[in-house]
Amino acid sequence: VHLLRGDAARAFESAEKSFGMSQEQRFSLYAILSRISRGRAAGDLGRLEEARAGIEKGIDEARRNGIGFMLPMMDSWLADVYAKMGENERGLSMVERSLANTSDATGRSWEAELHHQRAQILLALNPSKVGEAESHFEKSIEVAHGQSAKSMELRAATSLAEFWRTH
User: Which of 66-70, 77-81, 142-146 has the lowest mean pLDDT?
Assistant: First the structure.
């Protein structure tokens, strides 16, 4: 919840506690999710190398343990870290791969955010791709609205309004 609200410091603290408790109690799924959440929070705090390493390790552990139900979200968080590190092509590639694999319910649950992220990375890579970026912001709103995902819809609508203001 802290991650989605943009409170990276509290998210990191919660993920640290959850990770320790999960390891102590041998809750491997929660340890993996806590590692990835801790990585995401570290990225939001500007600790990008720590974030990349933590999320990559968590994703590797998830795949080794056959945990695939949250991979689109995990991959998008890693793509965000790559984009923050200036590796926009790598981030965009991850987002596009995730979008291509949104056939299951968990992939579709993160689809709105993937379109939002794709628009942002496209603009970072090539500011002249305004039409394509705008269509992804609009698709993000459409998907979120269809899923009654109000916070994602608001996030995408706000980004689209900011996009219109600057372009």
Answer: 66-70
Segment 43-56, tens digit of pLDDT: 999 999 999 999 99
Considering the entire predicted model, what is its pTM?
0.88
Structure tokens at 73: 């979200």
The alpha helices in 65-167, defined as continuous H runs, are 71-84, 88-100, 105-109, 111-125, 130-146, 150-166
Distance CA 101, CA 99 (A): 5
The structure tokens listed for 56 are: 């990559």
CB-CB contact of 72 with 101 (8 Å) = yes
Angle between helices 88-100 and 71-84 (to 10 degrees): 160
Whether the CB-CB separation of 124 and 82 falls below 8 Å is answered with: no
| Digit-coded pLDDT (tens) for 95-104 | 999 888 776 6
Among residues 7, 114, 110, 109, which one has the least CA distance to residue 15? Answer: 7
Which DSSP category does 104 fall into? S
Nearest to 15 by CA among 33, 36, 32, 38: 38
